[in-house]
Amino acid sequence: MLPRHLLHRIARLALPAAACLLMQSLVPTILKAESANRPNIVYIMADDLGWSDVGYNGAEFYETPNIDALCASGMEFTSAYPGAANCMPSRACIMSGMYVSRTQMWTPGMRAKGDSSKMKFLVPRNKDKKGDGVFPSKGALPPSVISIAEVLHDAGYKTAHFGKWHLGPDGQGFDVNDTNGLGAGLGQKFYGNIDVAENLTDAACEFIDQNRSNPFFIYLCHWDVHSPIRARKEVVAKYKKKLESRDWDRKWNPTYAAMIEAVDTSVGRVREKLQQQGLTENTVFMFTSDNGGASGVTWCEPLKGAKGAFYEGGIRVPACVSWPGVVKPGSTCDTPNTGVDLMPTFAKLAGAILPTTQSVDGRSWVPLLSGRSLPERNIFWHYPLYLSGAGYNQVIPVFGTEQMHWRATPCSVIRRGDWKLIQFFEDDSVQLYNLRSDLGEQNDLSKSEPEKAAQMLEELRQWQKDTQAVIPTKLNPDFGKSSGGQRSAPNKKRS
């Protein structure tokens, strides 16, 4: 059958039926002729693995020799970001090539989390609470969305998704969808399953064996290291012994370390399988995480905040790419990239046609792989809900008070070059950081660099308009009624 992208183009051009039939007959021949020179694409993503949790970013207690070796064999992206601060929306960005302001997939469960009396605005919350329905909050990608799998499939690739999905009941065009490595369906969950990482890796390796003569795309999304924190006893015992072997700077979690090892082992096994099949030279291999590390399980220092926050601890992730003969071993790239970039990047690698029936917000970073540069551009995040924090992830106060409570409140974020600006909707205040000199976001420069802040805010507002980003404005009548402490002046600016 004719690829969906070409069908859309034919419909718009209103080509005669005979021309349509001719194109349909030629497409398989064209794809077969071109596929020999297209690299395989392997994309492995951990769940909730923090930027600081890998050896090449300084981890000492956690052991990631295979991830470190992958990074050493290729390029480290020092400023890699998902499209969101938690799992569901970041995966939607990857699969659709669209920012969350377009998908309207804000958070798992589709509703704000936290004490509603501390929320200044009405936002989607529990079904029995006021605020539901004030603006859309979606939990699935509709089948009408053209996915990265369909883009690559139409270019002649065999496509497989293994592991966590979190995008609804539609498989979005993958040839294989398997959430546990044993054939489980998309709706099933395997958090805390101590065998699932190995089973998923087995399935991915088998897929490589079966498709070694065809270009393929593997989207391997591990359930680890998401809670509950569980791992194989013998591996946990190894890290308990390590914890007891010396005085560490903090009490690291041996079970979490064992979960990281399960993911790391998977990376090593997939690389080994590619080597066995003689496919290493013709495979682009990328590893990353879906968002920052979880507070209370690991530490994200020197970054501020953690999973769910829009400070760097919530959105900066480890990421590296290997492609022998193209990517220089041991190279680094400081150019910021984000989850919506993956569709145009993989399409470029595959010689595929991007969708024309939906926006593609990202930009291909293929030129970066060979050491070339790209023009500077803005990247964005948007979150119109509330998300309560815990521990060091309580980074935002309740509006009008000094009480730290939230890890995220309604906000938008823009990064351009070294600069990052966060706009908080509750009081329309901003924070401005230079990430090159202040990676931990300790020094708000919005007052000392007013022109830079104003320029970035203007560009952020234009992006909100262009993408029809939802911004909450309706006040919550229950705000402050049962919150602890007294609220000060409602127009107090956040420092």
Automatic annotation (TrEMBL):
UniProt record similarity statement: Belongs to the sulfatase family.
Enzyme Commission code: 3.1.6.1
Species, as recorded: Stieleria magnilauensis
Protein known as: Arylsulfatase
Pfam hit, one: Sulfatase
Name of encoding gene: atsA_62
PANTHER family to which the protein is assigned, alphabetical: ARYLSULFATASE FAMILY MEMBER, ARYLSULFATASE G
Cofactors required: Ca(2+)
InterPro entries referenced in this protein's UniProt entry, alphabetically: Alkaline_phosphatase_core_sf (IPR017850), Sulfatase (IPR050738), Sulfatase_N (IPR000917)
